[in-house]
Specification:
16 helices, DUF403 domain-containing protein, ATP-dep_Glu-Cys_Ligase-2, 0% strand, 2 domains, mainly alpha, DUF403
Length: 313
């Protein structure tokens, strides 16, 4: 397939996964803040921090409050990772890839984009916003279902699955950074008292609560949650599952040896130590390091298949 086509479907999948992940995270975080006392160290700006978007936020807003954070993460045109910008990128990549995607893909993506664009004026209304976020998640899952059930397992499909799992691993690592706050020695008494609620919502941010309770009964603690989200081999949003899947989908691509070697380095480095046994601040450092490695892997993919005439930065 042409390199420009491969690049379009790769980024379609990354942005589609990002839209769903962003919607879920905001939805769960809103519920969390409604359950927590006001004096804990978690607030609306925590969402901005998870996305490492502090600089972009302060460049566009002077005050930190719910409405500004929601505008920034959902609709802000100057925020390159806002949900509406990501969804616009999904739509454009789908529009220019009609010949290789199931035809229902464009219909679903276009309808979702128009719906979200029309509803953005109402995001300050919490009830309507929460309903919109649930609709976004459902529509994204519908698109993934169409791709899974109607698309040949060809190079385009492998690029899309590689992108999906790379984006998913990145989001899981960002949510896991929150554990440095939940486990910090100097955390407040209010935060300590709410630990059960916090670990539950952390699992929900990755749609992991039900699968976790199936294997861990009612036990909700740091060691169990971290082990599950980092090392579980069966749950599709654990770091291990997502990172292993990246290699599985890169392998059938042409001339994939060098990229697979980069992938194996990441696998060996992230799983040589038990991250759940590290001090809280070290988990944050390891997750930052993983995000940098995933960005480098994405650059390697771009150089190998999309822009072979460019060098990896």
């Amino acid at each position: 397939m042409l390199s420009r086509v491969a690049e379009r479907v790769y980024w379609l999948a990354r942005y589609l996964e990002r839209v769903e992940n962003t919607a879920r995270l905001i939805n769960v975080h809103t519920g969390l803040l409604m359950d927590l006392p006001r004096d804990v160290e978690i607030d609306w700006f925590t969402l901005v921090t998870i996305f490492d978007a502090d600089m972009f936020y302060h460049a566009n807003f002077d005050q930190i409050n719910e409405n500004n954070v929601m505008q920034f993460l959902l609709a802000e045109p100057n925020n390159p990772i806002s949900l509406l910008n990501s969804l616009s990128a999904v739509r454009e990549n789908a529009r220019t890839s009609l010949d290789i995607l199931p035809e229902e893909t464009w219909e679903q993506v276009n309808e979702l984009y128009l719906l979200v664009k029309n509803e953005m004026a109402a995001i300050s209304n919490r009830r309507r916003r929460q309903q919109l976020l649930l609709t976004i998640m459902e529509r994204c899952q519908t698109v993934w279902g169409i791709l899974a059930n109607h698309m040949s397992r060809n190079h385009a499909y492998h690029f899309m699955q590689t992108a999906k799992h790379l984006e998913r691993a990145d989001m899981t690592s960002r949510i896991l950074e929150m554990t440095s706050l939940l486990m910090a020695e100097n955390r407040s008494e209010s935060l300590r008292a709410a630990e059960g609620i916090l670990w539950t919502h952390l699992l929900r941010a990755l749609s992991a609560q039900q699968m976790y309770t199936q294997t861990h009964s009612s036990s909700m603690n740091a060691d169990g949650v971290l082990t599950f989200l980092i090392r579980d081999e069966a749950f599709p949003r654990s770091l291990f599952f997502s990172l292993k899947a990246i290699g599985r989908y890169i392998w059938p691509l042409p001339q994939s040896t060098t990229t697979l070697e980069h992938h194996q380095i990441i696998m060996s480095e992230i799983f040589t130590e038990r991250l759940n046994e590290l001090p809280a601040e070290m988990i944050h450092t390891r997750m930052d390091d993983l995000q940098a490695k995933l960005a480098n892997l994405s650059s390697q993919i771009s150089q190998q298949w999309f822009h072979p005439d460019r060098s990896v930065a």
